[in-house]
Design a protein that fits this description.
With about 110 residues, the chain is mainly α. The chain has one domain. About 65% of the residues lie in helices and about 0% in strands. It is built from five helices and no strands. Keywords: Signal.
Length: about 110
């Protein structure tokens, strides 16, 4: 799958994380380096699942991709930095580099 399509999926998830209020997240076994508020992780996962399945991924692929991307964001960016990435998506027609970086890191999950 092309990184651009992954970026669109991730961009959809980031843009949608603030608009979804009733969601559930899969519990993780390890505490992330930069934990985000639970309501943010829940909303991100829900928006990512919806966006990736709308782009044609299966539910299994979507769960794998969305979990991976959330873990990558939490490993790489503090919550404040993640909010900045979100703000950048609203300021430009091009996705921020962070979206491409995370998408590239998680692309392999789609072939598993």
């Amino acid at each position: 799958m092309k990184i651009l399509k992954l970026s669109v999926i991730l961009l959809s998830a980031i843009l949608g994380y603030g608009t979804i209020t009733s969601v559930t997240a899969q519990p993780t076994q390890e505490q992330p380096k930069n934990p985000y508020p639970q309501e943010v992780t829940d909303a991100y996962l829900e928006a990512c699942l919806q966006g990736s399945m709308a782009q044609g991924l299966t539910e299994k692929q979507s769960k794998s991709l969305c979990t991976c991307t959330l873990e990558q964001f939490q490993a790489r960016y503090t919550f404040d930095e993640f909010v900045q990435v979100y703000a950048e998506t609203n300021q430009s027609d091009e996705p921020p580099a962070a979206i491409f970086d995370v998408g590239t890191a998680c692309a392999a999950t789609l072939t598993q």
